[in-house]
Amino acid sequence: MKSPKQKLRCSWATGNPNDPADPKYALMQQYHDEEWGVPLRDSRALWELLMLEGFQAGLSWSIILRKREAFRKAFKNFDPAKVARFTQADIDRLMQDEGIVRARAKIEATIAGAKIYMEMQRSGQPFADFLWNLAGNHPHQGTGLSFPVTSPLSETVSKELKKRGFKFVGPVIVYAFLQAAGIVNDHSTTCFRRKAVKQ
Known about the structure:
Elements (H helix, E strand, L loop, with lengths): L22 H12 L8 H14 L4 H14 L5 H4 L4 H8 L8 H19 L4 H8 L5 E2 L10 H13 L6 H10 L3 E2 L7 H6 L1
Parallel strand pairs: 1-2
């Protein structure tokens, strides 16, 4: 029987061959093993993940993951009702917060995204229902052999998000979001998580 250290994972979560004890990779492995690809149906959690994917644009996910708790503190645990009320003073505060990615356009997009989220909720369209309806209300199974950066689904979801006013939601960012949220199962065929996530 294989020990936990011998588990086969997706290549992006296999660690640093030069330093297996690198805590950055330990965090990535934990994220891979416990969160990535698991179907997420909570509206608030989906919105948080989409906002974090937006902050990741141009950076690596490991950076965002290491800063995730600081992001949660800065954005009131990503409570859309609270973030939607952020003012210029909050933007100024966030621009001084060394714990997060200090990109004004991304901060402003997150606040705008909270307002859009709340408007969708008020109009009777929960964020989770909106996303999963676009996916046909079931997770899509990737081949596990090839790993595209976009898909017809990510193109559609990107278009619909942009139509509602969301920013930093291009097809590539959205595809990464769909993978992370388990709307698409893209664990590799050799990864120990693929079958568990599919079930």
